[in-house]
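Q: May I have one protein plus its fold?
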Amino acid sequence: MNFKPILVIPGEKKSIFFEIFFKTIKSKNYKSPIILVCSSKIFQREKKKYNYKNNIETLNLNEVKKKRKLNNKIYIIDIKNHNSKFYVEKCFKTSFFLIRNGFTNKIINGPVNKKKTLKKKYLGITEYFSENFKQKKYAMLIYNKNLSVCPITTHLPIKLVTKNISKKLIKEKILIINNFYKKYLGFKPRIGVVGLNPHCESILRFNEDDKIILPIIESLKSKVNVKGPYSADTIFLRNNRKNFDVIVGMYHDQVLGPMKTLYEFNAINITIGLPFLRITPDHGPNEKMIGKNVSNPISLINAFDFLDKK
């Protein structure tokens, strides 16, 4: 069977990515070819630091364009001028070119400093990918096989959340989740939706839980296995969360906080709704841990495991 390559963008030059990358590829053999899109100089430096002995073949874009058949080993596409402030962006743009030209439909990116690399144009990498592929309907899924979460709004200041949730947006995210699970995981997920307000109650005349969230859940019940809204302070209790495959929240930390408390780094961030599979490990650059060689690779291992089966 011919497995499509997994493109890997290490991301920031200063991060723990290469540490967990080498731990990951030493842990098992993958069926898919793995292609790093990064500076060869940086890679050779990191390879030496983490005592990785295997030779890595360099590919040029002409070879890739011809869709040369690759073996299940590691390759690198050398992105030169790694001292440029546009280096990380060039890694992404090269990978986008390969995806657009049908070379693969699987990509992993390492952590990116949103303030430094994305500037203020994008809320996060989820939005960066989606806009570059002109995909307006997408969602952030923090995936674990036991329980996943999805925020309706992503890296948005709390004071802007109420202005940005709507029936249309909630419906869109729920349908994207449902379609993703059916297409890639082979089953219809049980989806629980969290209310916006504490206990789904409000002292104000307009209660978003009653006026926005509840009506859209009721309208979808004939198509999707969805229930709610539930109070955010109890849905993650053991006897409650076992009833769901995915819990949808109204804002980022409402569901990512409990998720990381339960599973720590044993989850992956998938941008769903794209015409390809994009995953990132569920952690940031973590510059304070660079060089200590104690970072947990489980999220990156999960990312490779997920894509290697697709």
Q: What stands out?
A: The domain at 142-265 is CATH 3.40.718.10 (Isopropylmalate Dehydrogenase). The chain has a mean pLDDT of 92.
